[in-house]
## 1
Amino acid sequence: MMMNWESPTTYSLNSVFMISSTDGWAVGYPGTIIHWNGTDWSNVTSPTTEDLWSVFMVGSNDGWAVGNAGIIIRWDGNNWRTFASPTNQPLRSVFMLSTIDGWALGWRGAMFHWDGSSWRNVATPTTQGFSSVFMTNATDGWAVGDYGTIIRWNGSSWNNVPSSTGHGLASVFMTGSADGWAVGEDGIIIHWDGSNWSNVTSPTTDILMSVFMVSPSDGWAVSAFGTIIHWDGTVWRNVTSPTTEFLNSVFMVGSNDGWAVGMGTIIRWTGTAWVSEFPVLLTLPLFVIATLVTLKICRRPKRTKTGTSIVKFFH
């Protein structure tokens, strides 16, 4: 699993989606789009400079991303293109059930549905801002947001569901109609058991930005300052992180492979550890070679080598 890869951007990445271990996408500021081909992450031409908050791929030849100013873009297998949007307000999350059924949401309770031909507004019972949507099927879905807001889709309408917290919720993930998780401010973690949402002990007070469940007994969440936590079916525990940068999104290909992205950062789960770009096992030989070359140069008379410092700027 160890490989020599690096991020092609220094901008913040807000969302990552993996179709497979050799095909994945991430989006972020300011309209940044990058693609994973199994070996490298590379920049892909973007049709927008608006910040992108969420990406969801239906398949290798069809996918969507949404962001600020109501921007909606679509991947057709060759290019990303802008798509007609029913709003100019920020869109924070997109979830596709199929090529003809999808949802996107954003500020002030705004919710939109894709029917295969256009995005249309759908009424919701709240004016609170949304941050995440997850559909278990066409007649069952969830959305979460500010002040612990939780609503549920029953196939014909969105309805309020009692929440166990007043904290803002940043991400929701369901493993089925009777099991799901949501995370958010101050490390809040809540669990759906099929009847109620209830608080679960969290090992962190950092804001949790994203949660992804591989199964009911295997899940991950990432947060500010690079915090990573894991669910083993019984308890959430802290896991060693290779970064202290903000992590905004996590996506697991399986129990032994996954990715998390954030502020100029991409890290990968190998099945035993989370590793950052240019893992130590790979870079050590490069370091040794660089040291030997430097020593050789320093031995030459009247020669100097000026070092450079790489500074990452976040949009």
## 2
Amino acid sequence: MRPAVRSHVEFYPQGAYWPRNARASPLYRLVEDHFDELERVWDERYEREHGFWRPVVRPVVEQFLDCGDLRCGFARLRCAACRKELLLPYSCRRGSFCPSCHRKRALLFAEHVDQGVLGDCPVRQYVVTIPKMLRLCFKYDRKLLGELSRCFYDSIKEIFLLAAPHAGASSAASPRLPAMISSVQTYGEDPTRFHPHAHCLAADGLLAPDGSLFPIPEPDPVQIMLRFRRRLLQILLAKERISQRLVEVLLSWRHPGFSVFQGDPVSSDDHEVRERLARYMAHPPVGLNRLHYDPQMRQVTYAPKHHQGGAGPDSPGTITCPALDFLAALCTHIPDAGQQLIRYYGAWSHVRRARARKSGCAAARTAPSPGTQDGCAHSSKRTWARLTKKV
């Protein structure tokens, strides 16, 4: 795609920050070698499996190839004391495809959630998955991904209010409500599979308008799953994405295929765990330290999550596939333009937090969130030097 560029890299002392070399990453070389070919053969080889070629893919990939390239723009940094100058290349900010930009977004998102949303409230992690039989519905209709979050919030809202029957009676206009953040992802441990699911952080109780927490007994994840299944199947049936016969088959299974993982409660003082859970909600599709690309063999090897340095193609959990197939699967995880993947519900919704800040109540002790998808893209006080220590 582009001619090779030789760059001079200065020697950085131990403990200093080493700028990344975008062109040296295996993902960059994979995309540069095979993306044009992938676009040419998509209709013939991949349309049946992955759907039609989406117009959003090429702009995202082209911006990824420009990320960190000095020829595509840079900022000149100068130290006022020693007058040393550095050139800082612009980033693509395409978090859905670029691992570097996605990692920065995940770190900023985690800080925003811990410091600007959760407040002094204990939380629980939830992970919601659906049967493989239903995943194609979401693959070919990306608008359905938002229904995963909405159905799950409606399910925990019903369970929480049933556990505290008088908790919703504080005010007709501003009752006590659950609070939840949901992040929908289409990738899991294996990035070659389309796996739509939701990662959620929910308050461990009901929140009043003044920010006080109303504790409830520990929810039953099985009951949450059953309500979530019922709601999601009703929506898919109403939108004519599935048939009544398929609904009957899914309901007759001994193992339902739906699952809801419920984690242990995390206290409001455990900021490290809260940030780690929030980072995982926004983790990138691939990890560069797990990806190996062989240009001679035109093959990609993707190591398991907790692999050791010597993990090879025959190691348990290792994924080995043709480079073109891997890149085609990776492109399916690029969200559509304007698609919202992170949502705030209940007492943590943007509207209720804005009302709380305006009224000056206890729930407004947190910082306001800018109007972006992850609520923190324009924070000017957070720097790479500090964020790098968290990686």
